[in-house]
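Design job #97: recover the sequence.
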């Protein structure tokens, strides 16, 4: 099951970061990969807010496929 996080304020960007951090720890990624995923999610959320006027992030662990 996934999680949807609304992105409409700077605080929501931080919520995306925290939600992704929780998922990558749960997925047992290495510390380096955790950092990469959290950074990428943060940048995507920030760009969604600044350039897209807001939106949402749908987060889930994919266990099969790419």
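Job complete. Output follows.
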């Amino acid at each position: 099951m996934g999680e949807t996080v609304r992105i409409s304020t700077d605080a929501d960007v931080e919520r995306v970061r925290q939600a992704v951090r929780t998922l990558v720890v749960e997925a047992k990624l290495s510390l380096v990969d955790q950092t990469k995923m959290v950074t990428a999610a943060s940048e995507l959320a920030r760009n969604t807010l600044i350039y897209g006027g807001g939106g949402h992030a749908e987060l889930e662990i994919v266990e099969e496929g790419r």
